[in-house]
Records
---
Amino acid sequence: MKQLSQDAQTTLLLTTHFGDKGPMEHGPLTPTEWGRFARWLTEQSIAPGELLVGNRRELLRGFQDNKISLERMETLINRGTTLALSVEKWSRAGLWIITRSDSAYPEKLTERLNHNCPPVLFGSGDNNLLNKPAIAAVGSRDVTNEDLKFSRTIGGKAAASGFAIVSGGARGVDEASMLGALEAEGTAIGVLADSLLKKSTSRIYRNHIQRKNIVLISPFSPEAGFNVGNAMARNKYIYCLSEAAVVVHSGRTGGTWSGATENLKKQWVPLWVKRTSDPDSGNNDLVNLGGSWLPHNIVEGDLNSLLGRKSTSNDEKDVKIDCIADQSNRSFYEIFLFKLKSLLKNDSMTRTELQDVFDLTPKQLDVWLRKAIESEQIIKKGTPVSYSLIQKAKGNQLAMFDES
Amino acid sequence: MGIRVEKSIAEDLLRNALDDKSASFRPNQWEAIDAVVNKKQKLLVVQKTGWGKSIVYFISAKVFREGNQGPTIVISPLLALMRNQIPAAERLGITAVTINSSNQEEWDEVKERIAEGDVDVLLISPERLSNDEFVRDVLLPISDNLGLLVVDEAHCISDWGHDFRPDYRRIANVLKQMPPNMPILGTTATANNRVVKDVVSQLGDIEVLRGPLIRESLFLQNIRLPDQAARLAWLSEHLPDIPGTGIVYTLTKKDAEQVAEWLNLNGISSAAYYSDVTHAGNPDSSSYRIALESMLLKNEIKVLVATTALGMGYDKPDLGFVIHYQAPGSVVAYYQQVGRAGRAIESARGILLSGREDQDIHEHFRNAAFPGGGQVNQILQALERSDGLSMPELQRRVNLTKGQIEQVLKLLSVENPAPVIREDRKWLRTAVDFEMDQERINFLVQQKTREWKEVQEYIDHEDCLMVFLSNSLDDDADTPCGKCSRCLPDGRMPETFSETLGVKSSLFLRYSEMLLIPRKQVPKDAFQKYGFHRILNRHGLEAETGRILSRWGDAGWGRVVMNGKHANHFGDKLVDAVCEMFEERWNPDPRPTWVTFVPSFNHPALVPDFAKRVAKRLGLSFQNVVTKTARNRPQKQMQNSFYQCQNLDGVFAVDSDIKTEPVLLLDDMVDSRWTLTVIAALLRSAGSGPVYPIVLATTAIGK
Ligand SMILES: [Zn+2]
């Protein structure tokens, strides 16, 4: 059994909820709090492990933080026996533990989340998979058979395109997409919010873990039970470990929704939304908020097309062709307007950027932009000149091109 | 952090504890307290029994508590030790409680007291720590703020220790993960340099405090007496001459029972002690064992006849003698056992008797210590096909005894990483690749063989016996002790015994038949063809309590039975023996009027021929009413109840028209008792009276 380094021991003592202890007077540091404290330690050139052997009062002189009292740290750091009993059990179950300073810690998380990334990751399986290009597949637990089948297909598709599937490892879309990848001899990453220890021993994943096809990780104690807060909190890690995300089915509230909207807000990775006939789904809303419809023919194409910043021109063409096929009575200007508005949904764009995307003659572009401004669809402002959407007009115009 | 104690304060605490104003620390006691309290060190203390380790951890616990730290946990394998220490702790104003298998009814109350912060010291047995449910429910709720962790008999952590205990492998793995700000105190009275080195290398960063281990009051002597009868005679003749009370160690439970019975017959008050010994007056084994330990402590019996289940940490200051009825497996183990004697008295005897059977028993122990690869694979495969199995579920899926399954799971589950883990009462297969560490197993088996050779050298050693023991413990002493049988031949106990006693003990061994307790319940779904109800005695289908004449191959009748079986004929001496037992020591009531037997394809004439002669001698009628109708696999290949029963289902038939009077059912060998149970049930169903089974020998292990 590998002994944890003293640095790792300190990190766990200060940040981990061991077992179901209920509320604690001095709870473990949150990722952000740990981030602050770790930064201070770095500035003082103190290794975390020194807190276990040196004179702590002396070492921590000068550290001041409203939330992190010395008393709180002392309480946490005294949990040595709890740490030993827990770590022995987890390592006995074949789980590993990595902290932010370990070389095995996935760079994608540190890059995208900076000091908000989880201080400790618990895992089972091959941790090298965490650095593989991956497609996130997300969706509700209870979905239609069609959606389940689709999730499996996306999993297989990811495998064929050389991507791992990263998901939340829950029932439904998560499990189906991961199994789809594994059945196609691909790989998968499960980011769990609870029960890592149990899941790693389950029949569906155990063999794949041993064959190094899957890695299950969790930022929470491997024995933590289900908890809504944790489930929400781990969503960001799913997106941050991927290169693009596919939402199979989302409600208008709940885990999938909150994860997807957080990703849209933070713009970690392009968000692709599967079309659905379910009127209660939030899929449509996600597209309105900046997601893109997943191309119909994605199951025949290459998932590499999902990469790149938000909607790539390639896929817009797919959308455009769909639109033309469906709405052949539309004029070219109307198609231009549709695309323009979807580009400007989140951000304004300069004329040069638009020129790059549309590949029209400068003159033609100017004519259509002016027409759009005159019809109060967009506005032009500032130096350098940029174009942005007029909010009130958004709904109606987009609806025109919507299928539903 | 910041908890400190000055020597003068600690010494005041010592004086309170001992109720002695002038008391002072023994060598190394203060150093140990200073190391764990003030320096938060990890420390291994190697000191002889009685050095006073409990003072060290009680005083440390007290200091930690006064500094607002949580309780101290003491892991110790001895129940009595725990009980005895509680009053000592009270004098220090320390509340010590114990949680072990013997006080389950108090657990809830104890847990509550722990949760409320009333407890200063919690004493637990090593297997508690390898019980994940206990860790979750009791330890984790208090482990956030422990004062100190104490591990008693810490030599068990080492593979080089004479005493391989899976539970200590788990303890070592927990200690390895203990961060440097948590103090640990390991204690042992039997560790040579190699063991100490191994413990240190496993735990890392641990200091060692070592004192002299040799006990000066011991008179050592070795006597070879190959026959059990001779050793019994020797004991009954000479034990009364040895002052005080003491322990006689045997290698097996049945020897413990037999020796205790013999001594009692000869007016020497004694009792047998082993891991699952029970007694009618006590609710369970552990409470009976505690009662036995305390009877010896209070000198209420002359001798406790014990297996090594008694030993670790047994701390009776005035133990007058430790006698080995059979030779122990290693010299270090021997010293640990014999070193319990004479702690606070002028002189005590350590006598090692060794016999012919010792060699075979140790070989059996060595072979049984580790399960075969086949057993391990069966269990792992069953678990691999599941999302977790409970013990009964596992028993239905593998052809292994419950004991074998438990042994395999124990050995596998203390590894780290381990291929199996227990969660919510189910065994789960982890995602850990597993291969038997054959090299380590070979090493351990060879190690035991080497140790056994060293014991032979000790028995025949020509020079000072104490120097021999001292060297094997790497203790400094090398001057002859001046009192062992080699240094001072005149101080020896005689090696002879009276002929009369010798004859009496031979007869005793021959009359040592055992009760045959029939099965009363059958496993669910095991008898599809017979369709027996699960609870036989509710339907009058059970056999009566019968008799087993001997143990296979044993002194007494066991060897005669073995020879008869090999010659395919049981001689008239055995007929005499069975009839004498039946008429003179058993006399079942209502008395059987006829005799029948268990048929066999392989030896069709052996048992019926014998049964016919027994019937004739007892004047009963002989009836051939049971037939074997199908060939089945040898019953000894069936390892657990379910398979044993399934293997018998539909195999025997009983004539429909049989006598309705009580009947004697004869067979030569018994192991699982299922064959007799099934035939008795068939006889009862066919209308017979009560069925009394008699068998010549048992092959069951450990009985
Ligand atoms: Zn001597």
---
Amino acid sequence: MSETTSTDLGVTPAGRGAPGSGPSDDARPILELRGVNKSFGPVHVLHDVSFAAYAGEVTALVGDNGAGKSTLVKCIGGIHPIDSGEYLFEGKPVNVHSPRDAAALGIEIVYQDLALCDNLDIVQNMFLGRERKNGIVLDEDTMEQMAAKTLQGLSVRTVKSLRQPVSSLSGGQRQTVAIAKAVLWNSKVVILDEPTAALGVAQTAQVLELVRRLADQGLAVVLISHNMNDVFAVSDRIAALYLGRMAAQVKASDVTHAQVVELITAGRSGDLGLTNGNGGAEGKEAP
Amino acid sequence: MSTTVAPDRTTTTQPQTLSQGVRGYLERVRGGEMGALPAVLGLIVLCTVFTILRPAFLTPINIANLFTQGAQITVIAMGLVFVLLLGEIDLSAGFASGVCAAVLAVTLTVHGLPWYVAVAAALATGMVIGLLLGTLVAKVGIPSFVVTLAAFLAFQGVVLLLVRGGTNISIRDEVILAIANRNLPPAVGWLLFAVGVLGYAAVQLLRVRRRRMHGLPADPLSLVAVRVGTVAVVAGLAVYVLNLERSRNALIVSLKGVPIVVPLIVLLLILWTFVLRRTAFGRHIYAVGGNAEAARRAGINVDRIKIACFVICSTMAAVGGIVAASRGASVDPNTGGSNVLLYAVGAAVIGGTSLFGGKGRVLDAVLGGAVIAVIDNGMGLMGYSAGIKFVVTGAVLLLAAGVDAISRKRAAASGLR
Ligand SMILES: Nc1ncnc2c1ncn2[C@@H]1O[C@H](COP(=O)(O)OP(=O)(O)O)[C@@H](O)[C@H]1O
Ligand SMILES: [Mg+2]
């Protein structure tokens, strides 16, 4: 069991500046990466990436297909070990080598492919790897009650039974189960990798509302999305990856749609972004 | 999004009445979730046909034979379920049981050690084999098909080496011989029956009560009654028939009672069903079989689960080997050879365990093992040659695998979106 119970904001006035973002750095990031590199064999996917997420805020992580967003998320989640760079949680350097390490810190990830077991039911999926037990026997009742409460809290309407296999759920329902699985643990950081990509209009709106609500409850939420409307609808900050480099991490209120699109497609936009096409250091704006 | 829903809406598909339960079951079957249905229907049809064609099929002596004939295959199949649940295969389970039987025989006869030492040695051999196979599959990453095919060949050789070039070793130890050749006194059979059925009823009722207490939807009592009733009738019939006199000349030697191997199988069935359905370990086996990457991301040590499943499989093969040694009163190079493995895989698949992983129960092995034993026995009574038996069993296995594949397609069509 690795639940974390606190979701306190920990907002420190006049904290250290967040990486890259010029305007009003009044908060210390709960999660911070500095100069992270990650290669798969000869393929260098992440180059000196710095990234920060703040409690009570939605940080959008944007970038073109193949920019390395999912890889970055998997590094945060302990799926892939990072090759070099710093990983700080609540200001302290930590070692995250496995999904359990990340979960122990209070980091939950809703993966792009959802990572649900189709042959297991909703409750079994939500507690997978963290089952409640009485001695050696699974405590099914407690798990079912907790799952029901969490789904109720997320206002899930359409699920017929908590004991139906996940294979029988629709795309939106599966997404909701994956999100419910992440918030079940009173986590501090929730990362959603393209949660709305496969959803219809109404379901997308529901998920975005949920994302905003999680942040308002004090969680740090990282939202990966391709859709600029979604990004601007809910996020406080935007981090743009370009070919495995962090082009910029800025406040959403300081940039326009067009600028973010430029950061995604070209890696720079005016003063923002990488100084040249393959600038080594993490992208910072040079005001 | 702001509409909250009462928990009873989110959680009610649990049937409230018996008819709802039946309807739900039919719906699941139509949706491709056949469960035990094909095996049970197959058993009924086969038994009826054989009884009509050869009345000798339904005599107490033949029914007792059926149980001991099917025991080795059923036990091996129970272990195979664990490997199949992962979506892996163990082609060496048959000869692994042969190796373990040979270890048992050598320990008993050559070294003259007591039966419990021999049994421990056989089980330990099974564990080591499973550890080796599992490590090669999980850690080294060789496909299980290849690893166990190599082991299939190698173990065949090991058995030959152990029994010194093709002679057979007879077993004289009374305890080992008793497993497949002695019967429980009829009264003990009924006592075990009563304990078993009452225990099953108690577990079911306590579960319903606990779920109601926690405000969770529970099965209606009528459904529980049907379930317990079915178990009581089937088990009661079996005990009754097995307790009938089956000696040709009861005055000289009386032969009646439940063969000892039957409660052994029931015990193993309960043990492994408990492990699979009620423990986190069992849950993780299903998870790895359903989506290994999801299991890994959930922090489950996938390699360890895989190795453990191979260990269980080979250890159960060892139990199967002990049963075979007992039944044959000897161990020879063919113990665990010829059709044993394919029959065991067939039993698991016919019972409803999927070759694609993630779906299966230990009960499947028992039901499928019964189907295989009935085919083998019935066709033998009809005087068919071994050749025809193999062809028919192969056809039945193919049919079962076909049902599995088609029901998966159906489930995919009716399930997703
Ligand atoms: N396990 C892996 N092995 C090798 N290359 C990978 C692996 N995972 C991702 N990549 C590569 O890393 C790059 C970034 O992928 P990804 O992080 O999935 O991008 P995004 O999520 O931004 O679309 C791609 O070029 C992809 O091919
Ligand atoms: Mg991606």
